[in-house]
Specification:
With 291 residues, the chain is α+β, with helices and mostly antiparallel strands. The protein is 16% helix and 41% strand. It has a 6-stranded mixed beta sheet, with helices on one face.
Length: 291
């Protein structure tokens, strides 16, 4: 195994906000983005690669040692991966992909979306018909460290936690002052870190029984308008109840959040990824895997 590329991009931005009423605010924000590729050529086989990327407000937040070590295991396993199973299967998805999925609900809790009347849910609506698993709760909290954190928004509003979903229902919206006033709400600052409530399951419980643990998608496409999502599997592990674990590749995972979350379970472990702070992984009781 050998590295092919390893690139680091660091951005630092300084902001100062002054107005005629004596407001004088300053902050400094950082963004660190890393992407790398590992290559591996097993004896007698074609060379395979594993690509990863991550971003954070600090170098420590990238957890680079953990990510590179995990990528090294994945590139070796990817070289011997076989075809993914097909059918209706329990699926575990984690970190960056979970953040993208929950971004659907953050989108429909945005004040500008409600002002333009293109929101999928009204305040008070159930966003999931719960059959089991863990209830969904989301909030915007700019005080929680992440890429979404801030000391003040573009209009000078201080960070304030705003609850968006509780017990699978939309209970509030957030967004820029213009849109909040349009809706008749007092502005409380723009959206910050998306905070999701921790679940009830340990990592071992999420991976128990027959389950497909997806590590990397080649393409992942959650839709902001419908909540439908699909992903082409680059690497996953087919875990069986007997304890076996087989690396697999190929095929696709598809689902619709409103149905998929009905009996989904979230991990107790919390992670920060980009502008997301919440469960490290989610287990869907059944998603469609097609070859």
């Amino acid at each position: 195994m050998r590295p092919s590329t390893f690139e680091v991009f660091v951005t630092r931005s300084d902001r100062r906000l002054i107005n005629h009423r004596g407001l004088d605010l300053y902050d400094r924000r950082s963004r660190v983005f890393v992407e790398f590729v590992l290559l591996h050529r097993p004896e007698g086989r074609d060379e395979v690669e594993f690509y990863d990327k991550c971003e954070s407000s600090s170098v420590a937040g990238l957890r680079l040692g953990e990510r590179v070590a995990r990528a090294a295991v994945c590139v070796r396993d990817g070289a011997v991966a076989c075809a993914s199973p097909t059918g209706a299967i329990a699926v575990v998805i984690g970190e960056d992909y979970l953040a993208e999925l929950l971004g659907y609900y953050a989108h429909h809790a945005d004040a500008s979306v409600h002002a333009r009347t293109v929101n999928a849910f009204a305040i008070g609506d159930a966003v999931v018909t719960r059959r089991g698993g863990d209830p969904l709760a989301l909030a915007s909290d700019p005080s929680v460290p992440s890429l979404g954190a801030y000391l003040f928004d573009d209009l000078g509003y201080a960070p304030a936690r705003q609850d968006l979903l509780a017990q699978d229902r939309l209970i509030g919206v957030c967004g820029g002052a213009r849109w909040m006033r349009f809706l008749g709400h007092a502005p409380r600052g723009d959206r910050g870190t998306l905070v999701a409530q921790a679940g009830s399951a340990s990592a071992a419980e999420l991976l128990a029984g027959d389950v497909l643990e997806v590590v990397r998608f080649s393409e992942f496409h959650p839709r902001a308008d419908t909540g439908a999502f699909s992903g082409e599997i680059r690497l996953a592990y087919w875990r069986r109840a007997d304890g076996s674990r087989t690396p697999v590749t190929g095929g696709s995972v598809t689902g619709v959040l409103a149905q998929a979350l009905a009996d989904a379970r979230f991990s107790r472990d919390i992670v920060t990824s980009g502008s997301y702070h919440g469960p490290r992984a989610i287990r869907f009781a059944s998603l469609t895997i097609a070859g």
